[in-house]
């Protein structure tokens, strides 16, 4: 039997094959091109490699290995760094040596490793859509902050005029009234007509809005104001584009989620909605073999604490090593679920009463929810409040 390790890099990859005694049989460097990946598979096939170790679980290299029918074991970079100490005290980073470490660890520790379980293509697409939307939201927040900082100088009267700076009504207003001079020409009648054309549904009258503008400090006028107006137009256009793309991604996520066979499992979760439920599905995935127990899911999500014990010393700390995308998705859902689910609210408030911070209490609730979600996920059963025993127990006590 023989084993292999692949040290993944941007432009090329080092492939190392070891025998049963841990001796290097062959070590080659292949390019990150179709021919290079074909050569990699050819080397592994020639040596009849039993399994492959690699530091990441996605990308063309992993796809090529899986397509070749090879079991793949993902060993995180942090683990590889710690494992270097097995073979020497220097601990230096070397691609050729790391490929050997990966191969030898698969040889010696395969029983402790979990083979890579891949998700369906539609799940991978949904995950990428959800993560892309989150990234674009981050850009929107940054752009809104930049616009707000600019308006503090150029047109202070527009800051806080409407509820949200990136709302459609706010962006439409800033696209038309781009300078202090334009604000000075506003009258109550003109503003009322403009609001009517925009079908403004807010409860604030034109008179109140105009009073807010006139009571605020004045921005530069004349040529200086006109120069700043160009910046306003540019920043508003950027923010409008980001808002439009978020909306488009949300629509695409909704369509992909509705078409996914696992959608009913997550759709009924309280306060999940479409976007939140889709994100949970995408980050958890559909490969049931990845999480044999609910604790395995909780540990990867960072919802289970990390315990360190030595002698009489025992310390329970925050779990830093986790899938941060999964943790963010689960904690975001858990934090809001307490507003619609009495069982979740009870768990959260009990944690707060014990002195835990909001973030810690949310993680405690997230771990409890993951037990429920794991059961639904592994049995392909949609979540239904009527079948949630602990929730019904709380409701009965309240009655």
Q: Specify the helix fraction band.
A: 55-70%
Question: Could you give the count of β-strands?
Answer: 7
> How far from one another are the termini?
65 Å
Total helix count?
17
- Global geometry: globular
H/E series = EEEHEHEHHHHHHHHHHHEEHHHH
Mean pLDDT across every amino acid position: 92
Low-confidence stretches: none
Short account of what is shown:
With 399 residues, the chain is an alpha/beta fold.
What does this structure look like?
By secondary structure, the protein is an alpha/beta fold. The chain has helices spanning 34-46, 60-67, 77-83, 95-109, 121-154, 168-176, 180-184, 188-197, 206-215, 222-259, 263-267, 273-284, 294-300, 324-337, 342-353, 358-379, 389-398; strands at 2-7, 12-18, 24-31, 49-54, 72-74, 306-310, 313-317. It has a five-stranded mixed sheet. Strands 6-7 form a two-stranded antiparallel sheet. A hairpin with a 5-residue loop joins strand 2 (12-18) and strand 3 (24-31). The termini are far apart. The relative contact order is 0.07. The model has no long low-confidence stretch (mean pLDDT 92).
